[in-house]
């Protein structure tokens, strides 16, 4: 099954579930804030990813930037190194995303996020009832950026 509501990359405004697509925390970038939100240290993050890689095919990846697919980004972001390795391994994008989804769940768990602030912000910004903002946010897998795009498109249709 493909990860239908996969978030945007953290560096593009995605929520903490997108940590599954991040590199090791070796430079200052938005990963720092996502790790804080997830309540895990950079070292714990590295250990979780390495442990997951050791038990799945995401641990493979000689030829990628960091030597393992656990550190690679979404297929929607062009990367010839990742794609070459996926072809060599005969791993489909569907299998890759399924494993990334599992890794995301290990990183941040399944707990529901508190979306009250996001719902209010969406309702105010797009002049819609909070119930509609809540429904759109839920349909977008709690990815605020995607919910904003959906509401923007709905406004254009009016």
List strands and helices in order, with pairings.
Layout: H1 31-38, H2 42-55, H3 80-89, H4 93-108, H5 116-126, H6 130-139, H7 144-157
Helix pairs in contact: 5-6, 6-7
Structure write-up:
- With 158 residues, the chain is an all-alpha fold.
- The chain has 2 domains: 10-108, no CATH class; 116-157.
- It contains 7 helices and no strands.
- α5 packs across α6 (130-139).
- It starts with 30 loop residues before the first helix and ends with a helix.
- The model has no long low-confidence stretch (mean pLDDT 89).
- This is Methanogenesis marker 9 domain-containing protein.
- InterPro entries: Methan_mark_9, UBA-like_sf.
What would the keywords be for this entry?
single chain; mainly alpha; globular; 7 helices; 158 residues; 2 domains
Mean pLDDT: 89
Instruction: Give the end-to-end Cα distance, rounded to a whole number of Å.
Output: 34 Å
Q: Supply the number of helical segments.
A: 7
Relative helix content: 40-55%
- Uncertain runs: none
Biggest beta sheet summary: none
Number of DSSP E strands: 0
Radius of gyration: 17 Å
Note the beta-strand portion. under 5%
Shape: globular
* Estimated structural class: mainly alpha
Count of the domains: 2
Order of helices and strands, N to C?
HHHHHHH
Task: Offer a quick outline of the entry.
By secondary structure, this protein is an all-alpha fold.
